[in-house]
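Researcher: I'd like a structural prediction for the single chain below. Treat it as a standalone chain; there are no partners to consider.
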Amino acid sequence: MKPQLIEDEIGRHLRAAEASGELRQAASFGKPLQDAAGWQETPEALRMPFKILKEAGFVPPEVEMLRERSELAQQLADCADEVERRSLQTQLANLEQKLALRLATLQGRGQL
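Model: Treating it as a single chain, here is the predicted structure.
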């Protein structure tokens, strides 16, 4: 007897769900999948490794920094107060510099 591959089992479950109409009932049926938050902001070479780590429950510091960068950029875009804008710009610039150094270090180690 041939060992069953996980892909075969997944295919069997999908065919059963399609036959029963379960797939069509899903809210996302027929719609493109949405990118995870921060996906486009993440350097392409890091997207898949970070996704794998995220699904394993581990969030690398660089991902947290990218998330924080995105939040600061949004706060800056929404900010009307000039003093607060300058503070946010400084925070964002400092974070971007720190992130660039971390990414350069990873690249130098051949991890990118």
